[in-house]
Specification:
The complex is a heterodimer. Chain A is an alpha/beta fold. Helix content of chain A is about 60%, strand content about 10%. Chain A is elongated, with a radius of gyration of 25 Å. The chains are: A alpha/beta, B mainly alpha.
């Protein structure tokens, strides 16, 4: 056994190590050490908890077996998952944290003595509120992440699902939840607790279905944040500082990422959450584009242009991830560098389906991270660049964001691809991006459209170089 | 007058939010994906609650409903802990490899 004070000190140490784990991510050099701190923190938390329970009977054996099973599944997924599937993986993992929070809350509700919260039917009111909060947020995180996972995986359509009175329904359900917590505290009856969990599962689904595929970076960040608050809620119930610290860290981390993603699209958080974007002016843009002429080219043209350029900026987007073109792209850049061309990468904050998605893919393809720049760092360079190679990106380059106040993406910061001497667009068709708006750049004189799969086109260009 | 222990925990909570705020803003944008996977892993520290719940009581109690929910939570959290840290490690290793290439 271990004294309660000593136990609390160990949990504090875990909490500090988790802070250092996040701190390490401020630069790639320190990040691996940070991850190690995180692992040590987790090992300490698990170790001292097992010692403090001091129950080394059959239950302990089950614990080890389950840890091993869960751990092997986790490790297997971690090694097998392709980097392009990172957003789905993270969404899937969020759902597990959410469900674990629900389970722990249920367990605490059924057997409150273990956590010294009172006895069944006579649980402290504060604990009831805390565990209902933890369970409710956990349940929302669980079903919300499942929906996000299905959308990212393409099992469910990425287009927003909206219906009349949706937001009112959510509002009413929210009010009902508050009422249920109140009744639970008053009567201590099981039925209210189960109802809270079931309604929260429903709210999770309803919250995420109206949000479109392109807004997934916000959704994932938001669910990240929720999973943190759920953990913090449980932390209060269990009076555990490691959980409270971690929950607060994760909660604020997810919130900041959501904020950064929203800013990257110049949209308010509520605008994204209320959803239903991108389903509107599809029809008008369809009519417009048929009339305008487009210059299209082939791999040889593109190779010729880039070989004779002195500087090229690559603008990757989600299309590159879908086509798994990052390795081919790196080879193309290597070939260009041999020809003395200066090549850099420009990454828009919301490129891809999760924060930092493109950076990871480029890292996977061995692109050195000092060649990869964020929007603010590189945007002025487009004016001096000869060729912009836009691969699988669209909306983030659309100049309409600066010129047309009517456009849904007006005010969104964009990469100034239009300022470079010529623009190469690798795209499968002229179809508009997720925002559902036409891109003026396609019809400019200095734009050459390369209609093909991103990977195939890039490979063809390598051959022509 | 005695201060409710809840207030202490609440203070820790609020201060941790501030720490989180400043620490996360200092994370470089290129590492935002590893940030998400590592926060995912550490939030699975919820496993401590699961362990307490699962091992509660005597040996014959371990198949009570409350304990079973604890065991289920252990599996879920274990998937997350191992998966989260390892996939973060895998990603960060790629960033490291590049650094060697440059030098």
């Amino acid at each position: 056994m271990i004294s309660a004070n000593l136990l609390a000190v160990f949990y504090l140490i875990s909490g500090v190590l988790f802070i250092l784990a996040l701190r390490g991510l401020s630069s790639p050099e320190t990040s691996r050490q940070g991850n190690l701190f995180g692992i040590i923190g987790m090992a300490i938390a698990i170790g001292v908890t097992i010692i403090s329970v001091g129950n080394f009977s059959t239950g302990f054996l089950y614990l080890l077996v389950l840890l091993l099973i869960g751990g092997s599944i986790g490790a297997f997924i971690a090694f097998k998952i392709p980097m392009t599937a990172m957003p789905e993986l993270v969404a899937g993992f969020h759902s597990l944290v959410g469900l674990a929070a629900v389970f722990v809350a249920i367990s605490a509700f059924l057997n409150p003595e273990v956590f010294s919260l009172g006895s069944p039917g006579n649980i402290k009111v504060a604990s009831l509120i805390e565990m209902s909060l933890g369970a409710a947020i956990g349940a929302i995180t669980f079903t919300g992440s499942i929906i996000a996972f299905l959308k990212l995986r393409g099992i469910m359509s990425g287009s927003p699902i909206t219906f009349f009175g949706q937001h009112y329904l959510n509002l009413i359900l929210g009010i009902i939840l508050v009422g249920l917590v109140f009744y639970l505290c008053k009567s201590q009856a099981d039925i209210w607790f189960w109802t809270i969990i079931i309604i929260s599962f429903l709210v999770g689904v309803l919250l995420i279905i109206p949000i479109g595929g392109a807004d997934m970076p916000v959704v994932i960040s938001m669910l990240n944040s929720y999973s943190g608050w759920a953990a913090a809620g449980i932390g209060f119930t269990l009076e555990n500082t490691a959980l409270i610290i971690t929950g607060a860290l994760v909660g604020s981390s997810g919130a900041i990422l959501s904020y950064i993603m929203c800013k990257g699209m110049n949209r308010s958080f509520f605008n994204v959450i209320l959803g239903g974007w991108g389903a509107t002016d599809q029809s008008s843009s369809n009519q417009l584009k048929e009339q305008k002429p487009v210059k299209s080219g082939n791999a040889d043209d593109a190779a010729f242009l880039m070989k004779n350029a002195s500087s090229v900026i690559i603008v990757p987007g989600y299309g590159m991830a879908v086509a798994q073109a990052q390795h081919a792209l790196r080879e193309m850049v290597d070939a260009l560098k041999k020809n003395g061309v200066k090549v850099t990468y420009a990454i828009h904050p919301v490129a891809g389906r999760m924060p930092g998605h493109m950076n990871v893919l480029l890292a996977e393809a061995n692109v050195s991270y000092d060649e990869v720049f964020e929007l603010e760092e590189i945007n002025n360079d487009f004016a001096n660049c000869d060729v912009a190679y836009v691969i699988g990106a669209n909306d983030v380059t659309n100049p309409v964001a600066k010129t047309d106040p009517q456009s849904p993406i007006y005010g969104m910061p964009i990469l100034d691809v239009e300022k470079s001497k010529s623009v190469l667009f690798v795209k499968r068709s002229l179809s508009p991006g997720y925002a559902g708006i036409d891109n003026d750049l396609f019809y400019r004189d200095n734009t050459l459209m390369l209609f093909a799969d991103a990977k195939k086109m890039t490979e063809d260009i390598i051959k022509s170089l | 007058m005695e201060i409710d222990p809840f207030i202490f925990r609440f203070s820790i909570f609020i201060l941790s939010i501030f720490i989180g705020y400043y620490v996360v803003w200092s994370v470089t944008p290129s590492l935002h994906t590893p940030l998400m996977s590592v926060t995912n892993a550490i939030s699975s520290v919820i496993i401590v609650g699961a362990i307490i719940a699962a091992l509660a009581g005597e040996a014959e109690n371990i198949f009570d409903t409350a304990n079973i929910f604890g065991f289920l939570a252990i599996i879920l959290a274990a998937v997350n802990i191992f998966g989260g840290f390892l996939v973060t490690q895998r990603m960060l290793a790629m960033y490291k490899k590049k650094k060697k290439d440059i030098k």
